[in-house]
Amino acid sequence: MKTPLLFPVLCCLLAWSTIRSQDVNLQVLVPTAPTPTTLAEVISFESEVLVLLTNLSTQTREVKLVADLTNTTTGARVRMRRNIPAVVPIVLAGGEVREFRFSELRSLYGDVGPDDFVLEGIDYEAVVRNESLPEGLYSLCVEALDFVTNELLSFTGNCAFFPVIVYDPPIVIYPSQNDLLLPTQPQNIIFTWTPTGLPTSTLYRLQLVNADDYQFVNPYDVFNYENQVFTYQQNDLLTTFFQYDLMQPPLQEGATYVVRVQAYDPLNELTYRNDGWSEPVSFTYQNNTIATPSDLDLSTPTPNVNLSPGDCVTYTETINTTFNTSVIPGQTVQVGEFTLQLTDVSLENGSYNGSGTIYIDFLAQDVAVAFEGALINTYNRLYGEESLVYAISQNTAITPEA
Predict the structure, then answer these.
(1) Which single residue of 76, 196, 247, 265 has CA 20 to 30 Å from 63?
(2) Strand partners, 167
């Protein structure tokens, strides 16, 4: 006879429990920029995610918040356990509405560790290392719990969705890997690379290093060297090219250089793989020397009176390396494409030392130069890798034919 009475009582208790469990209305808003980019930003309350709390009851409530982050693309998930330690409650008076940013909530929690989270498809060490979120569409859900009992006080499904887009770094187009760049007068190289990110947000940084200054077996290691000194660096480039001309330091002929480009967003609203750095590209700044007719030794064999149709006559082609022992001041000497007017010259230990001037067309003036250990052939041309001519004022080397 008591069974009919028990059923209404249970219904009332369930209804009261449902009402109590929905005392707090909660909204989650993820900013479009910047969106969270690391796990730590989300589960450690370090991002600018906005949470709106409304106490629907007339009683004061002390609550804490727990977050649940899911990559809907891969299914990877990390959520805070409901018993995660919180040191200070959020106090909501009856009917009160309060607004919090995640970054403001961090101080409400004590020390947390791996036991305070449930992880699916995510390594906790990745959270500790503050690794970037993989690409995908994410849902961020937040629940309001009673501070003491961990009772759920908010509706379930208080979620916001946001995408994480990770842009590829740029690719250096010119020069190509291991290119041989021919020096020009005046100096002019146009470095180019592929675009990435968003045109309105992405800037580029170009770094150029003389790899010969460091003597690494792998020239790309120069960028991992703590004390590297860049030959040149240019920041805040808006375009996907940079003209390296007379306004930049002169490149040394014969040297190997390594260049790389970084894409970055000064507002940190975009994410790039490899911190936005391109793969380094190595190139050599050197003439691909071709012998000129004045340097050729054409040795024609003695005519054969018995030559028949189809027979071949051959000759050998070499750079003239016959050393000239009678070079004197006032003469001119060819140094690659330049003409050196000698003002002083002396023969010492089988090579020449001295000074002179070279007329530079684009400067429309003579440049004072000096030379050491120079080898000059009988056509008055410098040859040999040890021959060195440099501008006295800038110590800029001019490399002769090998």
Answers:
(1) 76
(2) 272
